[in-house]
Write a structure and sequence with these properties.
CATH topology of the largest domain: BirA Bifunctional Protein, domain 2
Keywords: Aminoacyl-tRNA synthetase, ATP-binding, Cytoplasm, Ligase, Nucleotide-binding, Protein biosynthesis
Protein name: Glycine--tRNA ligase
Number of domains: 2
Catalytic activity: tRNA(Gly) + glycine + ATP = glycyl-tRNA(Gly) + AMP + diphosphate
CATH superfamily of the largest domain: Bira Bifunctional Protein, Domain 2
Number of strands: 23
Number of helices: 18
Subunit structure: Homodimer.
Helix content: 40-55%
Strand content: 15-25%
Radius of gyration: 26 Å
GO cellular component, one term: cytoplasm
Length: 514
């Protein structure tokens, strides 16, 4: 656990040092769990967004996009169940006066047991070497099996208690597990209470006439209330989907773990409208499709897993998370939910307007069922960033810090470096920049020795460094260096664009999904 914490601190520090993520309002000591994306972070975030949008909307004939407003009529949130049911269980420690999510305290406890499993696996890998069968070891080693049964028992009980809103048993579980306050070490807990996560605000010029509103806690409802508008104007036939990227706001009890859990965040969601009765098939289809999208980025299949929900939301008949191995363990990255007809049916009831689809093949009208895919853009950013940050031991007994971002997502695709700041080399470097910038984000870097510049660009995640030297003036060639392998090759300036394009082209990356 200590190593995990140290690794995560390095991620946070690197994100600030290299212009990816800053604390919001930092000169005023910041705002808890609110962050700004800096110059490189804004580019990485944009590239992730585009990679999702192209895969979800552009490459699917039956999925279209939407950009709905953050403010919505307050009855929307009554109909969706958020006013009555959008709660987290909170618990206070009487000694430290700190507030925690009760379910997260239990999940952190099970994460420590998972760390014990990882430790057993690491020891066994060293002992058995190439003969080690990880799958068999996890299924047969008595100690590991015991740990896993312990985890399953705890999470099953937690899920059942939350589903039944048995908050007394949630507290009992915390006490039985002897979970202590991380800050004070005290086990002196209050009762568990429910806490609504929505931010309230007002719309209107005067306090007397202002309407009470909420900042939207999710983007999905904007899709549901526009279902018929999109279906009719787009002449969409079921099955079809509506996708959206947008901000959402939640007054988290304990917003923590850097950008993993924020109060203002961005979601990438798609609601897929289907015939009632076909939801199981489509649910499995979208689980496969979404996992294929993640794996196309090459972050390692071992870093992903599905987790089926023990406790289902009030609107779902099936739900699973795609979990990713963050520096602090496996946590939810994306959710796939079979939402039934709850949302459209509820909005029909509360609005008094029909939200039905006439199916010409069946010659009947019905309220469609929905399968949802929902991924946090900020969490995806953290997954990509933390997975890519590595320290490598080199052959000359030195180390380098390198941010091995998937080249398709890297903020800067190439850095152009004149070997020296004279003899016409900066001018030729600038000519190369002026040509490449029409196709890629590129940067000019002339400060320090070329080796130090390579290291700086490695740490910044730039896939290519292009060095202009005196030979470049004579034969119009440059040295191109690959970030991940440090391999260098001499190429014609005229070929540089094609070399970069081959590595960063979104089409070639997305074709890995097929």
């Amino acid at each position: 656990m200590v190593k995990q914490e140290d690794d995560f601190k390095k991620v946070i520090s690197h994100a600030k040092e290299y212009g990816y993520v800053f604390q919001s309002s930092e000169i005023y000591d910041g705002l808890s769990a609110v962050y700004d994306y800096a110059q490189n972070g804004a580019e990485l975030k944009k590239n992730i967004r585009e990679y999702w949008w192209k895969a979800m909307v552009q490459l699917n004939d039956n999925i279209v996009g939407l950009d709905s407003a953050i403010f919505m009529h307050p009855t929307v949130w009554k109909a969706s169940g958020h006013v009555d049911a959008f709660n987290d269980p909170l618990i206070d420690n009487k000694d430290s006066k700190k507030r925690y999510r009760a379910d997260v305290l239990v999940e952190d406890y099970t994460a420590k047991i998972e760390a014990k499993i990882d430790k057993e696996v690491t020891k066994a890998e060293k002992r058995f070497g190439n003969a080690f069968d990880k799958k068999q070891f996890l299924e047969t080693n008595p100690r590991v099996v015991g740990y896993q049964e312990q985890i399953n028992t705890i999470l099953k009980r937690l899920g059942k208690s939350l589903e039944n809103e048995d908050l007394v048993d949630v507290k009992n579980l915390i006490e039985e597990l002897e979970i202590a306050c991380p800050l004070s070490g005290s086990r002196n807990w209050t009762d568990v209470k429910q806490f609504n996560l929505m931010f309230g605000t007002k719309l209107g010029a005067s306090a007397d006439s202002a309407m009470d509103l909420y900042l939207r806690p999710e983007t999905a409802q904007g899709i549901f209330v526009n279902f018929l508008n999109v279906q009719k104007t787009g002449r969409m036939k079921i099955p079809f989907g509506i996708a959206q990227v947008g901000k959402a706001f939640r007054n988290e009890i304990v917003a923590r773990q850097f950008i993993f859990r924020q109060r203002e965040f961005e979601q990438m969601e798609m609601q897929f409208f289907i015939r009632p009765g076909s939801q199981k098939e489509w649910y499995e289809t979208w689980k496969e499709k979404r996992m294929a999208w993640h794996l196309s980025l090459g972050l390692g299949a071992e870093n992903y897993r599905f987790h089926d929900h023990e406790k289902l939301a009030h609107y779902a008949d099936a739900a699973a998370d795609i979990e990713f191995k963050f520096p602090f363990g496996f946590k939810e990255l994306e959710g796939i939910h079979s939402r039934t007809d709850f949302d459209l049916g509820s909005h029909e009831k509360f609005s008094g307007k029909k939200l039905q689809y006439f199916d010409p093949e069946l010659n009947e009208s019905y309220v469609p069922y929905v399968v949802e895919t929902s991924i946090g853009l900020d969490r995806m950013f953290l997954a990509v960033f933390s997975n890519s940050l590595v320290e490598e031991e080199l052959d000359n007994n030195t180390t380098r810090t390198v941010l091995k971002l998937p080249a398709v997502l890297a903020p800067m695709k190439a850095a152009v470096l004149p070997l020296v700041k004279k003899d016409g080399l900066p001018e030729l470097a600038q000519e190369i920049i002026d040509d490449l910038k029409w196709d890629f984000n590129v940067v000019y870097d002339e400060k320090d020795a070329v080796g130090r510049r390579y290291r700086r660009q490695d740490a910044n995640g730039t896939p290519f460094c292009i060095t202009v030297d005196h030979q470049s003036l004579e034969d119009k060639t440059v040295t191109i260096r690959h970030r991940d392998t440090m391999e260098q090759q001499r190429v014609a300036i005229a070929d540089v664009k094609a070399i970069i394009h081959k590595e960063v082209d979104m089409k070639s990356w997305l074709q890995r999904m097929a």
